[in-house]
TrEMBL record:
Superkingdom as given in the UniProt entry: Eukaryota
One Pfam short name: MatE
Subcellular location: Membrane
GO biological process, any: xenobiotic detoxification by transmembrane export across the plasma membrane
Predominant location: membrane
Family assignment from sequence similarity: Belongs to the multi antimicrobial extrusion (MATE) (TC 2.A.66.1) family.
InterPro entries noted in UniProt: MATE_euk (IPR045069), MATE_fam (IPR002528)
The protein's name: Protein DETOXIFICATION
């Protein structure tokens, strides 16, 4: 569904010049008309616009994707360290991170994604001073959301048992879930600050913060697990510390170096907060229905015969898929920023061409990753486990993983378009129908009734993803971008861009 440079501030003038100049830069084939692209009539124009959009998109997407990959790497590296302790520990931590932590991650990221629409369009309309107000509103809402989500962590063990997980896995996963509650609260600070910076395309600092946090996390895991011998408790402590390092570093940068968008704490953060909650909830539902969909895949495998091997193999595949997914969440954020900025600036053709370019390039990347997975299908599981049986189980799932990577190369990008355009509620209904009314029942039937096991569950759920992607592509093809630009202008006014 929806990651990642235009700057209105005086401290990053060079970044601002790069993006604005690229947007308005004439080439031998095109000349911009009031900041927007002309209608494409020749192949030379198409090639020039494709080149300009690729530069602008990847200037944004590259640093954001790198940062998100580093943050995801904190999850992945945690599982890698724990996986070499034992198979049960791997399954327990994988369940805690894939089910319990991902549940809150998806909800909070979705709530914070409302800022991608509002901040992106406000920045495009020149209302930079409103970004800090929006971020503070989001902090308030997400912190309250964390309090509401805390019981899920506290009662993770009975919840997992209710979902059919083995008792020993549920007990250990429940303990780990309680231990990582502090990390969940760090996300309430992290996501709004991240969206604040992304909307202005100040993404270089996000990449550096993510990189150093990952390096420090690896050191903490080594120290707590191998030197101190704390086992899974050490993994949880390292996870909490790394999460808060990322959040606090982002806030420090916002306060010290983003003076155009950050004017200090303000009571305006409480203005229109209920309307803000409604938009945040629409964003959360849209994104959660996607993230939880693959989470359900892990849960369903826990009911199969050999739960340890089934959960372990699917968790390793989801971990690998997650690495690619984080890259495309970065691209998702980039197209969201591009679409929202251009619609807020009243440039419908620029928004349209941006979408066309990134969808094509994302498909090419997805096909490349599928090829890599199929070539290395007998070997990549070694990174996560020393068990030969588990490695063989993963190899049998590699073909489905490859197809998933192709679909996941397009789907997050389309979701980013939806966020940039403010279509969250519509996409939420589409996700509900395609994923949970069509894909999930089909996966259950293939996995349990047709006795196809993990492969059947996964194949059925992939059909749901394919249907959702097809529906969204049709909607985008039929979109009136001029009308979307007009609605973006009205949205900025409605949210106080000219009144506050």
């Amino acid at each position: 569904m929806e990651a990642p440079l235009i700057n209105g501030g005086g401290n990053n003038v060079e970044e601002a010049v790069v993006v604005v100049d690229l947007h308005h830069a004439p080439t031998s084939a095109i000349d911009t008309c009031e900041g927007d692209y002309p209608q494409i009539t020749t192949f030379s124009q198409a090639k020039s616009i494709c080149w300009l959009e690729s530069i602008k998109l990847w200037t944004i997407a590259g640093p954001i994707a790198f940062q998100i990959l580093c943050i995801y790497g904190i999850n992945s590296v945690t599982q890698i360290f724990v996986g070499h302790i034992g198979n049960v520990q791997l399954s327990a931590v994988a369940i805690a991170l894939s089910v319990i932590s991902n549940f809150s991650f998806g909800f909070l990221l979705g709530m914070g994604s409302a800022l991608e629409t509002l901040c992106g369009q406000a920045f495009g309309a020149g209302q930079t001073y409103m970004l800090g107000i929006y971020m503070q509103r989001s902090w308030i809402i997400l912190l309250v959301s964390c309090i509401i989500l805390t019981p899920i962590y506290l009662f993770a063990t009975p919840v997992l048992k209710l979902l059919g997980q083995r008792d020993d896995i549920s007990e250990m996963a429940g303990q780990f879930a309680v231990q990582i509650i502090p990390q969940m609260f760090s996300l309430a600070i992290n996501f709004p600050a991240q969206k604040f910076l992304q909307s202005q395309s100040k993404v270089g600092v996000l990449a550096w913060i993510g990189f150093w946090a990952l390096i420090f996390h690896i050191f903490l895991l080594w120290l707590f697990i191998y030197v101190f011998g704390w086992g899974t408790v050490g993994a949880a402590v390292a996870y909490n510390i790394s999460g808060w390092i990322v959040s606090l570093a982002q806030v420090i940068y916002v306060v010290k170096w983003c003076t155009d968008g950050w004017k200090g704490l303000s009571w305006l953060a409480f203005k229109e907060i209920w309307a803000f909650v409604r938009l945040s909830l629409a964003s959360a539902v849209m994104l959660c229905l996607e993230i939880w969909y693959m989470m359900v895949l892990v849960v369903l495998t826990g009911h199969l015969g050999d739960a340890v091997i089934a959960v372990g193999s699917i968790s390793i595949c989801m971990n690998i898929n997650g690495w690619e997914g984080m890259l495309f969440i970065g691209i998702n954020a980039a197209v969201s920023v591009r679409v929202s900025n251009e619609l807020g600036s009243g440039h419908p053709r620029a928004a349209k061409y941006s979408v066309m370019v990134i969808v094509l390039e994302s498909l090419i990347i997805g096909l490349f990753f599928m090829f890599v997975i199929l070539i290395s299908r007998d070997h990549f599981a070694i990174i996560f486990t020393s068990s030969k049986e588990l490695q063989q189980a993963v190899a049998r799932l590699a073909y489905l993983l490859g197809v998933t990577m192709v679909l996941n190369s397009i789907q997050p990008v389309i979701s980013g378009v939806a966020v940039g355009g403010g279509w969250q509620a519509l996409v939420a209904y589409i996700n509900l129908a395609c994923y949970y009314i069509f894909g999930l029942p089909l996966g259950f039937l293939l996995g349990y009734k047709a006795n196809l096991g993990v492969q059947g569950i996964w194949a059925g759920m992939l059909c749901g993803t394919a249907l959702q992607t097809l529906v969204l592509l049709i909607i985008i093809c039929k979109t009136n971008w001029t009308k979307e630009a007009e609605e973006a202008s009205e949205r900025v006014k409605m949210w106080g861009g000219s009144g506050d």
